[in-house]
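Mods, move this if it's the wrong board.
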Amino acid sequence: MTSPKIAVLTSNETEEKEPLKIILAEDDKDDQELFMEALSATKIPSEVTTVENGAELVKTLKDPAEPKPDIVFIDINMPVKGGKQALAEIKSDDELKEIPAVMLSTSNHPNDIEETFKKGANLYIQKPSSFTGFILILKKVFMLHWTKALINPVKNIFFVSEKNISHKD
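Not the wrong board. Structure tokens:
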């Protein structure tokens, strides 16, 4: 069952809650660093494990010695095993399918968005071009009403980009 920890977080609650367990599957070191810095700027307590491809992601998720994450962020284009293939494996595994999966890509191509939606991703984020944009997007991800997003993903809120996010969010 998915952890309720990724429910709405307010600044008061962040002090009291145990950190979110996040796995970031991203092969680009610069993108890993940008993600970590933006996440830190959100002030959301978290512990991040990074892996560099889909094969490492699936292996880490299936390792009984590793705690299950509260959420995974998966880059679409990675070597060894791409994000779409890793997503399909995760969502077809009874032990892993409940873990929220957020796809990351520079692409906003409708085919990529549709394919990952059909494979069971919970969100698709177009990687932002600015640091501030990344912070806003991550805040939005952690403020979502995840119970609704997991039970019945809604296509009109599935795709998140710097262009469709309000600075008021």
